[in-house]
Automatic annotation (TrEMBL):
Record protein name field: Transcriptional regulator
Record-annotated HTH araC/xylS-type domain positions: 186-287
Organism: Paenibacillus nasutitermitis
Gene3D superfamilies assigned: Homeodomain-like, Jelly Rolls
GO MF assignments: DNA-binding transcription factor activity; sequence-specific DNA binding
Pfam families reported for this sequence: Cupin_2, HTH_18
SUPFAM superfamilies: Homeodomain-like, RmlC-like cupins
Keywords, sorted A to Z: DNA-binding, Transcription, Transcription regulation
């Protein structure tokens, strides 16, 4: 039987030579997690394998070789074979994610039944991928189909699994989410988010931000959601809470001071927002 671990908010498939998908060793693991509060995710690596994490909802901040990388809803974060990585501060934020650990194409002749020329071309392109890839929301459907096939072991299961896994890979190699956004506008948006990050305590309105890049308020909102998978307000709240998590580790700084420094009018409001995103109160996180 296929080895499956099922919990309230977690589903995992793991390859085994004795299961019905024994002739599909490329797919080492596949899983889904719904983290309703900040949860441990410590440093680890995957020898000879890539890991791909699709953020279905929320935001995740990763650390790879000392560098912090943030992935948002509708984006895939990936690590290359042997890279050590973890969630920031060893805790993953509340989120929903699909993830897949896939053998390096260069390690397996017949990888996903592809001829050697195509297999090595995919290997070469994967080596050049940016750490964060925006993908079509259809990727969620592909992961859901993979789970369905594995759980019910439908006819031609191996063939269909190869097809959907390859579809996910090709979506990463040919991302489409930002094609309709001009390079100049993307650059302006990146500069804008850097401005927001430099002054997290400031209470920006959508109108303020839209004026910064010279577009209408409604167009700015759609543009921001397309690029970052969330509203500007959610983005700014998550940024403040991310900073709060780091500051709260300094136990000599009071929770009220943290709240005021990040622009919250009261510590109660800060605690409410903190628990919304972290699933814990500031004092619980500090402990």
């Amino acid at each position: 039987m296929v080895k499956i671990q099922t919990e309230t908010a977690r589903w995992v498939y793991e390859f085994s030579e004795s299961n019905q998908l024994a002739h599909l060793p490329e797919l080492i693991m596949l899983g889904y997690d719904h983290f309703q509060e900040a949860s441990p995710l410590v440093i680890h690596q995957h020898e000879r394998s890539y890991e791909y994490v699709f953020v279905d909802s929320g935001k995740v901040t990763w650390e790879v070789d000392g560098q912090l990388i943030t992935s948002h809803t509708g984006q895939i974060f990936h690590t290359r074979p042997g890279e050590w990585h973890r969630a920031r501060l060893n805790f993953i934020e509340p989120c929903r994610i699909w993830w897949m650990i896939l053998l390096d194409p260069s390690e397996h002749v017949g990888w996903l039944n592809l001829p050697d020329e195509e297999r090595m071309e995919i290997h070469n392109q994967l080596q050049k991928l940016p750490r964060i890839i925006p993908v079509d929301i259809r990727v969620r459907e592909l992961f859901t189909k993979l789970r369905d096939i594995i759980e019910h072991y439908e006819p031609l299961a191996s063939c269909r699994i190869r097809h959907y896994v390859l579809d996910i890979i090709l979506q990463m190699l040919n991302p489409s989410s930002n094609r309709q956004i001009s390079f100049d506008l993307q650059k302006a948006m990146f500069t804008l988010t850097e401005t927001i990050q430099a002054a997290p305590e400031k209470r920006w309105t959508n109108k303020d931000l839209a004026n910064q890049i010279g577009v209408s308020e409604s167009h700015f909102y759609r543009l921001f959601h397309l690029m970052y998978g969330q509203s500007p307000a959610n983005y700014m709240d998550r940024l403040r809470i991310e900073l709060a998590c780091q500051i709260l580790l300094q136990k000599e700084i009071s929770i009220t001071t943290v709240a005021m420094d990040l622009g919250y009018k009261t510590s109660q409001h800060f605690a409410t927002v903190f628990k919304k995103y972290m699933g814990l109160s500031p004092s619980q996180w500090r402990r």
